[in-house]
Each structure stands twice: as C-alpha cells, then as structure tokens.
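Per reviewer request, we include the raw input and output of the structure prediction for the construct analysed in the revised manuscript.
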Amino acid sequence: MNKNEVYACLYLLNQEIRKKAKDVDYSICFDPNYWPIAMDDMEREAVYGGLKVHEYGTERMVKIANAITCGVTNMKTFEVYVLGEYIRKNHGCFLKRKKNGELFAPKGKGKRKKPVYNPIDIESIGQLDGIEFYKPERLHDQVGALKAESEKVVSVLDIDSEQKNHLYKLVCDGVVGIHIYLHLWRLNDHFKINIDTVEDEEYKKFLKMVKFLDESGVELNSVFYRL
C-alpha cells in the first residue's frame, strides 16, 4: 500500500461518513478497486480548483504507508486504527455539534441548512497519532479498565431501549478500543442488536463500522504495531 492509496482510502471514508446511515458502506473505502477511482476524482478536484490540496495531503501519508509496506503493521490494524480513532477522538459523534447543540451550518442565500460533519483527521492519521492505543500490550490495560467498570454498573453488555450498552459508551470515551467492542460483539451474538431498527444515525454508523470490521475478518490477534 503506497501513500496515494492510503490517501484515496481516507478520501473515500470522508465521503462515506457524510452519507445517511442506511447508505454508508465502509467496505468501499478499504477496497483497492475503488482507490484508482478516488485518485481520479481527487485529481479532477485539484485541476478545477487550481489547488494542490490533495498532493499535499498525500505526502502526509508516507509514515503509515511505510509502516504497512514494511510489516510494522497490517491492513487489518489500519482498518481498526482509522475507524477506531475517528470514534475515539470525536467521542462517537459523526456530526459536529456547536456549543448550543446546533448540528447545522447557517444556510446561505437561497440554500438549505446542511449538517456539519467531523471529517477524518488526515494529518493525525498520516502520522499514526494514537496507534499505541492499539498495540497488543495495551490490551491488558483496556481489559482491566473494562473489568473495573463492570463492578460499577449492572452490566456493560446489556442493551437498553435504544439498543445501546455501556460498552459503547466506553468506546466513545476512549476507555476501550473498537477492536475490543468487536471481540465482545462476536462472543455475545452481536448483543442481539437489530441495526436496521436503530434510530440514532450516529450510533447506526458506529454499528456499521463494527459490522464491517467483523465481515473483514479482524481478530484481536491480527491487530498489531511493532516498533
């Protein structure tokens, strides 16, 4: 995987998170067949916009591309890292809320209001910021934190009327990683959550992330970063 492909992947992800939850398909972002199409789109944007934004962004991907190419990490870890950091750093929020709780940007003249989304942090991801959180040796700490939390609540796994559980909150708060949620999701029959009936758009997008990682075949022992 080279720097252009990494950037194409993140470019596609930035597009997907803006879609309605029912239309989101994270597999597109990590599918090599879609990367050349994304690169063509970025090139057209740069040409017609008269900017070198995408070229500059691509250079930020060198560190993560080298890590994958040299075997310091792998694609499964890349998937967990990118999606997990988006959730962790935005506290599970796909939409960017203002101080007054408003979710929409002011409408321009003759235009409707549009929701404001938290984009993928290209610079942070390109520098592998936060990758330590997903190292195997951090599993012990996160499992310990999970056990400690289990002593404070009735259950961290049982879902409420919104089909949310306390484990989801722990992922959003950065206490445990999305890969631990995925592991327990598998062991507990997906917590018996029916994604199709979930009404919360942001929560539904999170669940579709977990579902994608599940279908991608991510396992706890496939997540590593060796330095």
